[in-house]
Amino acid sequence: MTDSPGQLVDYAAMASSRGYSGIIAHGGDGTLSHVATGLIRAKSTIPISIIPHGNGNDWARAVGVSSLRQTIEAINRGTSIRLDAAECLVRDREGSNIQSSIFVNSAGIGLDAHVLQKTLVLRRRLRLGRMGYITSLLSTVAAMPEWIGKVDVDGETVFEGPYLSMTCGVGPYMGGGMRLSPSSTPVDDMLDTALIRPVSRVNLLKSLPMVYRGNLLEHPAVSSWRGREMVLRARGRLKMELDGEPIVDLPENSSVFLRSIPSAFLAMVHQQKARDL
Fold first, then answer.
1. Cα(77)–Cα(270) distance, integer angstroms
2. Local structure of 162: helix, strand or coil
3. Beta-carbon count within 10 A of 179 CB
4. Model pLDDT for residues 38-51, shown as the tens digit of each residue
5. What is the CA radius of gyration of the chain?
6. Ramachandran region of residue 37, left (φ > 0), alpha (ψ -120 to 50) or beta?
7. Distance between the two ends of the chain, CA-based, in angstroms?
8. For the residues of 34-73, what is the DSSP string, one character each?
9. Are 234 and 149 in contact (CB under 8 A)?
């Protein structure tokens, strides 16, 4: 049992040197992300699997271990595959580094990060569980906040202006099965980014089924790009989350650098999902 995210990172980093042949984490996307961070920083060659016990379990869904049974099957008969990760570096308006993190599934900027922060507050106060996300989403849509920024992909400016949400995916799922970067796959050495420009409240609500069907990129208000490095230069405030955990207290006009880390760590993947990857 661990007392803090930092302990997860430290324990994972020490596991290989202490003779362990693998790690099974029990928790959600945040737990898995911290364990993977420890393995990546230690340059470990032991694999990781997870017994999913979170609200989203999106990384587990991507590798085919959405239940205890599937985890056991993956460990006994699955395939060990090297998966990608990504580095997130945040700099303030003067260019000083203020935040550095590794994520293994997705980075959400704007609407989804805003909804996540509201969801965490609701879960603590009202114990709404997964319904907290839907409740927070509907209340956020009522207010329809917007953000402004400039996006570069591999050194080329691809967007500048207002946006509702920007998702940079290593894997395709977030928010408990939502596919905001549906073209993402954790084995192609690349990051896939989907940006949603401002739309009406009615349009946004009508488009929600597309998020779960995986055809969001067909929406006329959505732009997508693929590359090894994504940079968002925010104008004004910034809301961001990594692997389902909010990044708080970011100063205005920050810049976010998201860089792919190809084949970053080893994971046990369910044999059926391994064929898809």
1. 8
2. strand
3. 24
4. 999 999 999 999 99
5. 18
6. alpha
7. 32
8. HHHHHHHHTT----EEEEE-SS--HHHHHTT--SHHHHHH
9. yes
For the chain, which domains are there? Answer: 5-83+264-276 (3.40.50.10330), 86-263 (2.60.200.40)
Output the pLDDT for position 1. 84
pLDDT digits (tens, 9 = 90+) for 133-173: 666 666 666 677 889 999 999 999 999 999 999 999 999 99
Q: Which two tokens stand for residue 37?
A: 């961070």
User: Which token pair is 130?
Assistant: 């997964």
Stated pTM of the model? 0.91
pLDDT tens column, 63-107: 999 999 999 999 998 889 999 999 999 999 999 999 999 999 999
Q: Which two tokens stand for residue 164?
A: 């509702």
Phi-psi region of 115 (alpha: psi -120 to 50; beta: other; left: phi over 0): alpha
Q: How far apart are CA 79 and CA 81, in angstroms?
A: 6
